[in-house]
Amino acid sequence: xxxxxxxxxxxxKYLRAAALCAVLLGPQAQAADIxxxxxxxxxxxxxxxxxxxxxxxxxxxxxxxxxxxxxxxxRGATLVQQRLKSGGLELQQRLGAAYQGVVDxxxxxxxxxxxxxxxxxxxxYGEPDVAKAVALIEAHRRTQP
Length: 145
Prior knowledge:
Blueprint (H helix, E strand, L loop, with lengths): L9 H21 L3 E5 L12 E4 L2 H10 L6 H35 L7 E4 L3 E4 L4 H14 L2
Parallel strand pairs: 1-2
Antiparallel strand pairs: 1-3, 3-4
Helix pairs in contact: 2-3
């Protein structure tokens, strides 16, 4: 015969349900997709968990690859190919991420930097403090039904 479960008071039932909801819904209620778009001329105070896109990152990587190249185009091309090869997968990932960031910013219609974008829907332009920009967005969201 199965053991009987003790009867829970209504308050305990409520507290257990609230705790379960907090565990299950807490990350969704707090989580926001935060994207920060800037460049080297517009430093930001990035928040943890935010994706940072630096629009001049591709140019910086190209400058790194083309630094101190010889005047001879043939030798220069060979040296760049060697650098690309020696950089391996890590360099390929950095290049891919840099260009993907530019594409993502362009596809979101970013017009001014720095830009803080939340959930691909809300944006604050010109605020270098990401936490402050996110707070402005959250305040706006609370006023909208």
